């Protein structure tokens, strides 16, 4: 998923081992660049040539990877076509005779699966809680400053809310570094849980923009499935999702979401979505409103007036709530309703 640390890790590996190779190249953010520009950078890094790329130059690159020990990192490749073009440029039948290495980072396993076997695949996991807290402390307090006792609880809550996502931890830590007001920290925690930008500069929107890239690349039905899982089906069995959801291609849709690291499926067949992705999905669902609405007790009248609502999740509502049959009567298009920790009368 976005923000898990693919680019950071690949840069770290590159900087650790590049001196062991005759030639090396780090191709950053390939998906946002034209293929010709990426090839030109590769030509410059490996062949010391700074000019427009022609067919002879491309052949020279291929010959070089056979004769020399070469390291190439292809960071964040976005399409199968670009990967094939770069792969064919760097790899030929004799590649196994040398010690060249190619490292590719990507958000979508389907782009890589025909070029990388399972042995060569690394699925980056979220940070453990102790690692996450250490990273947050580094960004929020630096090396020398110590945390004030009254910040202990909110610090633990922020680390837990980040759910091991390095980008989220870094964004929160940097934003709070110069703010030693407990109330500001609590408000920042609330904004994180509501999938809202922290404010104070465009850099604080980077988390949600990076996470949303994978969602925006989905087909329409996959977007609906993602939102349904974020709002209703996280923790449910996949069979339940198939039975309740009205999807044309549910098996293929779940496979695509899984390959894009937007969901995980446990060995027992249960759906699991990262907290930040779930928060983002619920935020998107609330903004759309024409399809799904996440229950907000303060906006009951709006919900009941919106006859298009198809799904509603009532959670932690301690005010007087309508009974399920009353809600169904008011919302004729309602298909999904969950009620947890509510008090109805």
TrEMBL record:
Which segment of the chain is annotated as a signal peptide?
Answer: none
UniProt keyword Transferase, yes or no: no
Q: Name one Pfam family in it.
A: WHD_ROQ1
Query: Start and end of every Disease resistance protein Roq1-like winged-helix domain?
Result: 219-288
Entry's InterPro entries? Apaf_helical (IPR042197), Disease_R_plants (IPR044974), NB-ARC (IPR002182), P-loop_NTPase (IPR027417), WH_DNA-bd_sf (IPR036390), WHD_ROQ1-like (IPR058192)
Superkingdom of origin: Eukaryota
Domain (NB-ARC) ranges: 1-137
Question: What SUPFAM superfamilies does UniProt report for this protein, alphabetically?
Answer: P-loop containing nucleoside triphosphate hydrolases, Winged helix' DNA-binding domain
Q: Which UniProt keywords apply?
A: Leucine-rich repeat
Protein name as it appears in the record = NB-ARC domain-containing protein
Q: Which organism is it from?
A: Sphagnum jensenii
Give the organism's phylogenetic lineage. Answer: Eukaryota, Viridiplantae, Streptophyta, Embryophyta, Bryophyta
